[in-house]
Write a structure and sequence with these properties.
The complex is a heterodimer.
Chain A (H helix, E strand, L loop, with lengths): L4 H17 L3 E2 L5 E3 H8 L2 H5 L2 E4 L3 E5 L4 H9 L6 E10 L11 E10 L4 H18 L5 E6 H9 L5 H9 L4 H11 L7 H10 L4 H7 L9 H16 L5 H11 L2 E3 H11 L7 H16 L8 E3 L13 E6 L9 E5 L1 H7 L7 E7 H7 L5
Parallel strand pairs in A: 1-5
Antiparallel strand pairs in A: 2-4, 3-4, 5-6, 6-12, 7-10, 8-9, 10-11, 11-12
Helix pairs in contact in A: 1-16, 5-14, 7-8, 13-14
Chain B lengths: L1 E6 L2 H12 L4 E4 L8 E4 L4 E6 L4 H7 L4 E5 H7 L7 E6 L5 E8 L8 H15 L3 E5 L2 H11 L4 E5 L15 E6 L3 H5 L2 E12 L1 E6 L6 H14 L13
Parallel strand pairs in B: 1-4, 1-5, 8-9, 8-10
Antiparallel strand pairs in B: 2-3, 5-12, 6-12, 7-10, 7-11
Classes of the chains: A alpha+beta, B alpha/beta.
Amino acid sequence: MMQSPGPERARSDRLADWFVAKGATRIEADILQPAETLLDLYGEDIRARAYITADPLRGEMMLRPDFTVPVVQQHMAGGAEPAIYAYSGPVFRKQDRAGDRPSEYHQAGIEIFRRDLPEQSDALVFSLITQVLAENGLHLRPVIGDIGILMAAVRGLATTDRRKQALLRHIWRPHRFRALLDRFSGRAPMPAARKQVLDRLGQGTPADLIAQAGTFTGLRGADEITARAEALIEDARTPPLAAPEAALLYDLVSLQAPSCAALDHLRGITPLLPAITPAVDRFAARLTALSSHGIDVDTLPFEASHGRTSLEYYDGFVFSFLADDASLPPVASGGRYDALTAVLGQGRSIPAVGGVIRAGLFARLQGGQP
Amino acid sequence: MIKIGVPSKGRLMEKTFDWFGTRGVTLRLAGAEREYSGAVDGVEGVELVLLSAGEIPRELAAGRIHLGVTGSDLVRDKLADWSSLVTEWAPLGFGQADLIIAVPTCWVDVDTLDDLDAAAAAFRKAHGFRLRIATKYHRLVREFLTAQGVADYQLVDSQGATEGTVKNLTAEAIADITSSGETLRANHLKILSDALIHSSQAVLFASHAACWDTAQRATMARLAALLGLTVPEYLTRPTV
């Protein structure tokens, strides 16, 4: 599919060199990655997008779908702090539709691991990418978001922990999140199937019902079934989210405005949703940091739901740089992924933010000059 | 010459022969008993190819056969972006079966995908691995569960006796084809109420990649008239 890997690779390497000139350390990653780590992280969806192959000794292996996971693992295995890494190389993504999106393409990227001043690191990644795009004559449409604000809003809801956890678990699946929110806020009626299950659960103890269901089969134990049955009963008794609180959450999910106006709007709702105050403060600090790098935050577009797609792991700042042609993927994108480092760090974690540039697309938009 | 691929044995073959036979096109086995050789009477220029139903999607996609009869489930599962590769020319009205998700009957707390998703999250926490769903329909099941926003599951491959995997503790749930549901009940499984992934039946498919020159198109027009079908739209456009 790839027409001429030479210029794309050279372009990618030069972008990584540019990041090195700005203070990053070049880092390499294996192309073959253990599939288990990535499957546990992304779930089964990644199988549709990543090439998986079998190694007779190492089990299922995956052609790296991105650099972030191996870079985090290398850093957690003994990198000095703070650290700024740059990398360049091919990544592999299956395409499920016939078309001209390549399944092998080069990414150049930068990742910052640093405990203090997270907003400064966010702004540094964003401004470096802005700068390298501009220096090469690419004027793309940037958009930023902040998944941390949405997560803080969910954590601050006056409802049960179970409901909050369900919403947080599906924060990257907007469709499912919306369905849950509709149900928890009473905007959608209880599905008939759920009503039937509750009616059934009302007819006896879970243990009785399990016994009546006939032969017990499978690994999921009676204790697990009982625990969930009790959770269903408890959830049915939980009152819906208070209408004003639910309205704020709906408003937040759909917020789109220039960054400064978005901040004003968020400041306006913090008295009603005090739990988001720290996240909004971070957003404000980030805008100040971006401003100090010469970014015009009066016009910089903000979308509260930006970056909420599956196969992502961002939990704070997110950004993309988009070409005019809406059929093209983002030329550059990235974000903050503090929680990912905890998942991969086996008890340890470090705040991290990064971004990648699609070198082939970058070169193509420059008019083919590599 | 137009090649038409038909399943090489069983009810699917017999029913296909019947379907064509009642429309004046006789498909029959030729040669010695057990020899996979076929013949077509009633229309000139059509050759019968006997194949495994599971291989017909691939042969259609590659254009090695012009027409093929197989299950709509197999085409959707085996071909990425299937509708760009083949056209559903005629549903044949037999071979009906539903691809569904089933869980143990003793799961009194689970009736819908929403329940399955919540149970999967708790299961992963308790057991340290993602809830296993046994199936041979990987693409269809994964695309369905992705679209429905179900997480914390994994698909494990099962090419046969899938209903037995739960009892054997190699899976917690299954996704499989069922027509009457008897095998499910016998294995203490129940169907989720909102997890009908695909209603399958035997379909006559036309390949996009096969060679469709003037001669093949003329044969196709004659065959279409006999079968009482209209020629697929893509075959009425001028060749490029």
